[in-house]
Amino acid sequence: MKIELDMYQTLALAVLVLMLGKFLRARVQVLERFCIPAPVIGSVLFAIFTCVCYVTGIAEFAFDDILKEVCMVMFFTSVGFQANLKVLKSGGRAMIVFLGVVIVLFPVFFLFGSRKIIRYIVQLSEEIQAMEGGDLDHPITIRGSDEITTLASCLDSMRVTLRQQQEEEAQASAKVKNLITEMSHDLRTPLTTLLLYTEILRCRKYETPEQADNYLNKIDAKARQIKQLSDNLFEYALVTRDTVAVLEPPAHFSAVFEEPLTEMVETLQQRGFACALELGDEDVLLSVSGQYVRRILDNITSNLLKYADPDRDVVVRFVQEGSKAGLCFENCVLPVPASSESTKVGLPSIETMMEKMQGVCRIERPEGVFRMTLLFKTAKE
Questions:
Q1: Global model pTM greater than 0.85
Q2: H helix intervals, the chain
Q3: Mean pLDDT, to the nearest integer, of 134-155?
Q4: What is the pLDDT of residues 229-239, one digit of tens each?
Q5: How far apart, in Å, are the Cα atoms of 2 and each of 43, 49, 61, 143, 260?
Q6: What is the Cβ-side half-sphere exposure of residue 340, based on CA atoms within 13 angstroms?
């Protein structure tokens, strides 16, 4: 059982303990003879009582200590009010010796007692300097349970946060470098082919007009491929530039996906794909960005047209996992790679947009199948 006392109850109990101490001091001659203060008598007895209650599990006391500092200041500032030179002189030579010893020994004991604290502060100063120099792997020493310990704990938390930010920035930088390398390769290949065909036409190295038309068609296809590549790169730049996605007010699943899913299915059916929709009857509330949802489904449609097997159904099903819900897209991949080259930008763009909407993008590639699950944050009615 835990007994919690507020400020007034704590103050009342303190008065009762003080009165108990005065009563016992007046009745017990030993306490009076050795000048044991009444507050000490009452508080020691109450401390023993609360200790026994805590150890035996009878009760645990919790006091409101809002007046503790006020009372301590009052005590230490008023403790010497009754002192005067006459009383000191009455103590004789022994009192003067005692005062001298106290004056000499006080700084000695103070320095000796604070030596450990000073060493700890010096150690913290050295560790902070190391952290300032860029060493975020060395932890800040946390020792004790006072205010300095709290400060050290906050500094260590800051160190961990800074290290995580550095790691995230390094990962983002490496991701951008890899993307630039891949995009440079993807741009170089169609550009080289484009220059070759234009050189053939410029030097008239074709034999028939039909062959010239064939080269023109190839040039057109390569130019469109480069345009698609630049469009994907521009979209990825837009997504990564947006620091925060503005989520629209929560809307029902059907209202969010009805229009973009209809357009997606129509586009796939016009290109000879069959779609199997398994959306169920649940109509949960989702917090999404409508603009991001449309761009994600456009990217998925583009990838399906490039890499999905048109002879097998494209399955779109409703999924719900805990506090998130969304769609799962599943399709069989072409046994032979598509003629169009991958830009390696579409999937990172989708993952980035889902992350900015506080959602999850999970990609699985079992043998011969590509499965993408998009989970959005749900909202309560």
A1: no
A2: 7-27, 29-33, 38-56, 68-78, 85-90, 92-132, 147-202, 209-241, 253-270, 290-307, 346-356
A3: 87
A4: 776 666 666 55
A5: 20, 15, 6, 29, 59
A6: 19
